[in-house]
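Hi R.,

Here's the chain you asked about this morning:
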Amino acid sequence: MRVVESINGALHNLMETNPLLVVLGEDILDPYGGAFKVTKGLSSAFQDRVWTTPISEGGIVGMAAGLALKGRPVIVELMFGDFIALAADQIINHAAKFRWMYNDQVEVPVIIRAPMGGRRGYGPTHSQSLEKHFCGVPGLTVLATHEFANPGALLHRAFNARSPHLIIENKVMYARPVLGPAALPHQLDPDVVIVTYGGCVEHAVAAANLLADEDEILVTVVAVEQLSPFPYEDIRAQVGSCTRVVAVEEGSPGWGFGSECARALIGRVTHFKTLAGPDHPIPSSREWENDLLPGVSDIQAACIDVFSGRIELS
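And the predicted structure, written out as tokens:
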């Protein structure tokens, strides 16, 4: 099963078992089935509850929040996660706050699915990773799927919470097979721990395997699914007693995932390095884009640096 099929299957299951659930998004009706084909078959099976929308991310999320307040759970598909900025006010100042503003008398069961990330050559406005701008928002849970877990199960988890959720789905990952957690490198006494999420997980796994084969460095990969609220205690537990850590993310450097990993591990590690995307917009050249985003060789080199003691904190 591929990632896209896992999410699609979960959507079908949720629609079958929850007759009030509505799915909203641009171009999600059959035969197109969404830009990444995640909603394929939904509108044929549930004609009255899969609604295609105008091109207005703010309007889509605002409508979703209103429906949720009236008791109808909603799953929103944004065509590209880059456009989530257009819905920021509806997410941050409305959906995430309503439950608190109304003294816990209402629920806001809204899930926003957002294809994020680069490596497909889509350029500066279609290859971004903007999730850090929504992490730390009270009342909003931010999740990130990857192929070493069950993406469909993550969608079920978000739905059962009956609260505003943003799910980050890496664009490249849709075609990947679901491998499960057993495929993640895990050592009882690792030399280095890589902490990462989303689309960077597969690169971290490949780097870990190369490090074992070529450099005799044992690496554990911690693949994080919940970005916000940040799981500090869980990260500490998974890193354990290892004092050499590399944090990897695809978004721009600073004020993001790597920073929170450092915050979680300060005083516990002696050698720590972060890898991130560029501190400028993603270029339109696919080759240049791939060079700028952290890849297998970058992660391998960073792990060698922290293992050798050349990097203490960067």
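The first strand starts at residue 22 and ends at 25.

Let me know if you need anything else.
M.
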